[in-house]
Amino acid sequence: MNQRFVVRRVGRRDLDRILEIEAASFGADAYDRNLFAEYTHKCGGLFLVAELGTKVCAYSIAAISPGRPGKRAELISMAVAPAFRRKGAASALMDSTLRRLRRRGVARIALMVKVTNQRARDFYAKYGFRKLRRVAGYYEDGADGLSLAKDLGQKVGQAGYPLGPPANS
Q1: In terms of residue numbers, what domain contains 69?
Q2: 124 lies in a domain?
Q3: Is residue 159 part of a domain?
Q4: DSSP string for residues in 30-74
């Protein structure tokens, strides 16, 4: 992890490269261009890419769930190009995503990971995600998924807004 990745918001010009990364990572289960274009609009500053030099080498997509008290978010997808795996791109993306969510007052982030994807499961465990439940047949190929979540340390009031630090008494 000696390489320095720059994390930035996705741009339309990144979609071709994201589709390459997606195909290399998920094969037949890869998302299509239209879905990524939709996420570009809907997820705003939470659809991120990691670059090394001028090369996009990874992406992540998170979305804040609308209308729920306590502001929750979901990590929709994260993928790293094979040549850049285990070099810090995913960590750079996760660090930036968690920081951005905290700034938006999000109290919890959840995700789904394939039971058989041990490398991803280990990565998420390193960040403190915990298993909520196993979801049988979640993936299109019939594989089970694990629902994971991480509390982001936000204290939330009844209206769903973060509370400030406790007053000294």
Answers
A1: 6-151
A2: yes
A3: no
A4: PPPHHHHHHHHHHSGGGEEEEEETTEEEEEEEEEEPTT-TT-EEE
Distance CA 117, CA 101 (A): 25
**What is the pTM for the complete model shown?**
0.85
Here the tokens at position 131 are 């298993």
Query: From residue 126, how far is each of 81, 93, 149, 158 by CA, in Å?
Result: 20, 14, 12, 31
Q: How many domains does the chain have?
A: 1
Tens of pLDDT, residue by residue over 42-91, are: 988 999 999 999 999 999 999 998 776 568 999 999 999 999 999 999 99
Residue 109, domain CATH: 3.40.630.30
Distance CA 152, CA 127 (A): 11
Answer whether residue 157 is part of any domain: no
Residue 156 domain-assigned? no
